[in-house]
Each structure stands twice: as structure tokens, then as C-alpha cells.
């Protein structure tokens, strides 16, 4: 397959179909046109709108797989993007460390307690609303998301599989009883009033900044974990489960943990029913999501990928067309939804 170079951090749209060719809108290089073989539009953004609109119109059952990149316009940082936390040396908490180390749990909950409000206040962007609009019109069969922010739900999508869990809920690891995150936040802040007052004072003195977009990109993670740069968390009080005294944990899949088998099974059922898969905002480096792209490819489904930078699917040659430009995926999907469904 042939591909073209493009500007650094460019948005990638890859569409898998054995009868199609690679093309790029970068620079003035020549490339193949839209799906019907006609000449490409003059504007790169218009090209993207045309391609993805046609992708939906020529599909009967489109499934969408999303990652952290779809939520960056909502002020929630990603992991592997140009400003992602992994680029700054962030190492996520593992399930084993959380369950076996009290000091690690104190550190985790202190940081999460401070960062929670930013995630709780986040609102869906046009990409989330576009997918909800497409679903309501019967043009999107559902969403499998790696995100834990619940923004698809807030936007109005109803058929959503939260593959990696949800940050708005905690769950006892012993009796499995769930608790709304807001209730847990109240319990945590009540048990750590002095600590939270110190954090507020640090923010006033600009020693801890979480408000601006730049500060969020630097000091926050996609799950609400805040970078506090503290060495001692021994003063943190972490309440136990009120029902059984067990350990409470965010209801998310941490590294080293497994996605629940029932969710994996449901996701495979969705993939097996779709004739097209749209992937948005993920590099597909994590196998828990990548396996669904492989399954779709095995089923000969068309695969479109919208993401900043190269994806694992491209390296493994699961896509036969690559489109690159600098468009914002929220703007792109918003306009595609309008073209497919209409301006309502």
C-alpha cells in the first residue's frame, strides 16, 4: 500500500475497503478522490466531510469505537496524543498496586478527590452530540467507548458499552455494591477536610493550577487523576465500604485488570452485526479495544479511523485508505451528522 507523509499531529482518517486506495489531502500531492471515484473537493475539510458522509450513506449498520481523543475538546486530556500524559512520563495505577497497597490507595484517592470536579463538570462536545444524533436517526447502531467520562451518555447516546467502566461510580471490591461518585466524593472530602482546604489554598496561591486548558493538559489525566507533586499522603483517610468494610475502587478497569467478560461478549455481538466500523480518537494501542477492529476486519467490514497520528490498525495494515489533514474531529463529525441526518 502507498501512503503520503503529512503534517505532524495531523488528523488521520483511514477507511478499510479492498477496492479503495490510500490518499492524503496534505500539501498539493495527487491522490484518489471520493468513494465514487469522482474528483476530490478543493478543501481538505470538505474532503473529510464528503468521505465520511459517503461512508455513512453507503453503510447499513455503523458501529462506533471511541477513545480519549474524542473528549479532548471537552477539556479532558488524552493519554497518547501530542500533549498526552504518557508523553510526560505518567504511569497509571495498576489494579494489583491499588488492591495490595494502602499507601497507593491513599495517594490515588487524594489525587482523584482533587481532580474529580473537573471531570464531573465536563460537558459533551460536538463529536459526542453528533454520534447521539446519528444514533437517534438510526444511522449509528451504537458506541463502544474506552472512555470512562460518560460524555456519550450525557450527549444522549443510549446504546453505549463502557468498555473500561465509568468514573462517576465507585464499587466495593468485596460485596460489589456500587455507590454514586458524588456520594463518595462527599464522604472523602468530609473525612479529609483539612487536606482539601490546603489544596484550595494552593490553588489560590497558584501553586496548584487546574483551571486553565493548559493546566488541565499538564496536571490532569483522563480519569480525573490530578498531579499534586506531594511526597506524603499518609494523612489521607479513605473510608471503607459501609456495608461490609471492603475496599472501594473507582468502577473502572485499571491496568492489569480484565474487562468483564459480559461486556466483551456484548461488544463482539455489536461488531459481528455491523457492516462498517468508525473508530474515533484512539491509537488502538490497547488490545482491549483493538481486538474489535481486528474482528471487524476479519468480517470484511469497512473500517474508518479518525485520529491524530498513526494507529495500530495502520501499522498492521488493516486499513487500505488513509486520509490526513488538520481538522478537529468535533467539527468534522458535527458537520457529517448534519449532512447525513439533516440540519435539525
TrEMBL record:
Domain of life of the organism encoding this protein: Eukaryota
Active site residues according to the UniProt entry: 164 (proton acceptor)
GO molecular function (one): NAD+ binding
PROSITE patterns per the UniProt record, alphabetical: SIRTUIN
Start and end residues of each Deacetylase sirtuin-type domain: 42-344
Pfam families: SIR2
Transmembrane segments: none
Keyword Cell inner membrane part of the UniProt annotation: no
Binding site for Zn(2+): 172, 175, 241, 244
Keywords noted in UniProt: Metal-binding, NAD, Transferase, Zinc
Cytoplasm listed as a keyword: no
Protein name, as recorded: Deacetylase sirtuin-type domain-containing protein
